[in-house]
Write a structure and sequence with these properties.
By secondary structure, this protein is of the alpha/beta class. 39% of the residues lie in helices and 16% in strands. The strands form two sheets. An eleven-stranded mixed β-sheet has the order 1-3-2-6-8-7-12-13-11-9-10, with helices on both faces. Helix 10 packs across helix 11.
Length: 436
């Protein structure tokens, strides 16, 4: 095989393992070799499980040779964000308040990955508790002076640097798709509740979404359908697509490079037969940020209240101050925000009477310089708020050579439509190759 194993997509690698042209042991060894080469610079991993991964890969190599595959991801090495429990590994969540010696049973997502045949090679770095705490030292492989995004920092950087073909992240605001876009790869945040949250440390119970980051858009349905609670048949990307371009807020917030890239992407999609309709957002949309915060903040303090009372001195000052401030939100505000969220979701659903998919930038610009900020989530958090499925695929490079992403959003439970649209968009717009 001419393409190195570490540079194969998850689909390509799963197919090669099934055919016998690559073994599970070779796939895992290639992933760790790439990690050994780049991890000192990128710092994507919180924990690596070399011994267990090698043993599992050896067993899967023998099984594949005997014609026995555990599932669609047989032998594919993956990473999991360090807020999910994975048997045999610690869950530290980038916090000094957690016990690195503690071990837990598999989370729902980890158990589903194993059942599908994936080999979990390690835990990926995260912003402290995947919330508003300190970011990790993870760096963007496109430019090490820039952030990899967050809070799924390691999940994005690991795929972007070709250390793993796919990883699992989470998104409460914009924490899964933003790292995917910043690192020049594909990402998917499914409808709220489509993936198990069991055994995942929460930020906000009613906003948290496990998600997938992968080398290519074709990998997203492979990963999602292998671990989703409800299995549905994938949709074909070959159809007459109706896209709704959201200007207004989304393009006004974005820098000129991003606006140009998204407008150019829309023209290319139209040239391949898609219909592009410009849509206006409903009036209540202007309040989405306040609604999101009034829901997320009280739910976050509820989870961290005990930690704040018993272990506040070991919490980072950034996380502690955020949690303390969140405790001041009156219960009545929280309840009204829940009501406003339902109203906003109903209004946004009406946009899909005219189109199949909404398109807009994934982030207002490329990954910012420095590691103190993980970037702007404001173009992503509306869809986390209402629980609509969303994907990102690269749509070009900024003037400083960093990746830009096109976001594709579908109606609630329209996961397969979003996945198919991302594959179509990637076919039209192409993939990015690392500059090294």
């Amino acid at each position: 095989m001419n393409t190195p194993a570490h540079d194969l997509t998850a689909c390509e690698l799963a197919g090669a393992i099934a055919r016998g042209s690559v073994s599970a042991s070779e796939a895992v060894a290639a992933a760790y070799a790439r990690i050994d080469e780049l991890e000192p610079k990128v710092r994507a991993w919180a924990w690596l499980d070399r011994e267990n991964a090698a043993k599992t890969a050896a067993a899967m190599t023998d099984e594949a040779r005997a014609g026995r595959l555990r599932g669609p991801l047989h032998g594919v090495p993956v990473g999991v964000k360090d807020v999910f429990h994975v048997e045999g590994m610690p869950t530290v969540a980038n916090s000094k308040t957690t016990d690195p010696a503690a071990r837990y049973p598999d989370s729902g997502v980890a158990a589903s990955l194993r059942a599908a045949g994936a080999i979990i090679i390690g835990k990926c770095e995260t912003v402290e508790f995947a919330g508003m705490g300190i970011p990790p030292e993870t760096r963007n492989p496109w430019n090490l002076a820039h952030t990899a995004g967050g809070s799924s920092s390691g999940s994005g950087a690991a795929v972007g640097a070709r250390m793993a073909p796919a990883t699992i992240g989470t998104q409460t605001g914009g924490s899964n798709l933003r790292p995917a876009a910043y690192n020049g790869v594909a990402g998917f945040k499914p409808s709220y509740g489509a993936l198990s949250r069991s055994g995942c440390l929460p930020v906000s119970w009613s906003l948290d979404h496990p998600g997938v980051i992968a080398r290519a858009a074709e990998d997203l349905p492979l990963m999602f359908n292998a671990i989703a609670k409800q299995s549905l048949a994938p949709q074909s990307s070959e159809r007459s697509w109706r896209f709704g371009l959201l200007r207004g807020y989304f393009l006004e917030k974005s820098d000129s490079d991003t606006v140009s890239a998204v407008e150019d992407a829309a023209r290319k999609l139209a040239a391949k037969g898609a219909t592009i309709t410009e849509l206006k957002l409903p009036p209540l949309f202007s309040s989405f940020q306040a609604i999101h915060r009034l829901i997320m903040n009280p739910e976050m303090i509820t989870y961290h209240a005990t930690r704040l009372a018993t272990d506040r001195d070991r919490m980072s000052a950034r996380h502690r101050l955020s949690v303390e401030a969140f405790s001041l939100v009156p219960a009545s505000y929280y309840l009204q925000a829940l009501r406003a969220r339902r109203m906003l979701a109903e209004q946004l659903m009406m946009l899909f009477e005219e189109v199949d998919i909404l398109i807009m930038p994934t982030a207002p610009g490329p990954a910012p310089e420095g590691l103190q900020s993980t970037g702007d989530a404001s173009l992503l958090s509306p869809w986390s708020l209402v629980g609509f499925p969303a994907a990102t695929t690269p749509c070009g490079l900024s003037s400083n050579g960093l990746p830009l992403g096109l976001q594709l959003v579908g109606p609630r439970n329209g996961d397969q439509t979003v996945l198919a649209s991302a594959i179509f968009a990637e076919k039209v717009l192409g993939r990015l190759s690392l500059p090294f």
